[in-house]
Specification:
268 residues; mainly beta; 4 helices; 17 strands; elongated
Length: 268
Amino acid sequence: MSALTFTLKKDLAQKLDVSPLTPDLLAGKSLAEISATLLWYGKKQIRVDEAFEITGKDTNEIVFDQSTSKIDYIGSGLKTGRITVNGDAGAFLAFQMQQGIITVHGNVNDFAATEMAGGLLLINHNVGDYLGGALVGNKKGMKGGTIIVKGNAGERTGDQMRRGIILIEGNVGNYCASRMLAGTIGVLGNVGEYVGYGMRRGTILLTQTPKLHATIQDCGIHTMPFLSLMFKSFSDFPSKFAHNNQNRVHRFAGDIGNDGKGEILVLK
């Protein structure tokens, strides 16, 4: 059975909320019912078939073709199945995702994987600010799951992160892991200023020593055998981190300005 495919057939002047188009919400629905589903388009609602050409039948595997950055909330609350995005994705990709797999073959806007709880998100290009963060005003960011970014990430990556793994092969902006409570963030490229600002616990893996603020404490060079086990756990991921096996690091602790017990480990 072929994947249920939504091919964009109109230029979007406004943001389009596709949160109703997930495998768990469409399971058991007929093509007519799916076509008649209403989506928020700016301040009004339109039918799915006004925006997309619909082909395929397998609701457990959904594809968005010719996707653009105006399509928001792809995979919102995903509980099962797989979503593939051919093109760019808008804001709030994988919002509160619980399980399943989302793959994006393009760039992604801000607030991707906000308050994500489980599953796998693979972004093959760049992503905006607040990846794996919390909604504005909330105190709980990413709570589980795995995020892999092949390109760069914006500012406040992992803000208020509580659990899970974020692996970024490119560069990351300022305030990476700000207010982090637990979890693991790995960055192969450069990170901006104020990395680990306000973090309490958690681990940040880096390959290059960043510019650190005054309340991050230098703890010297260490050999940490647990890193071998961590990298082994990455072996099944489609990421360059899967090929790393180093355990010699320059360790920094903090944020001591927040009574933090987190750590920044720079691989040697």
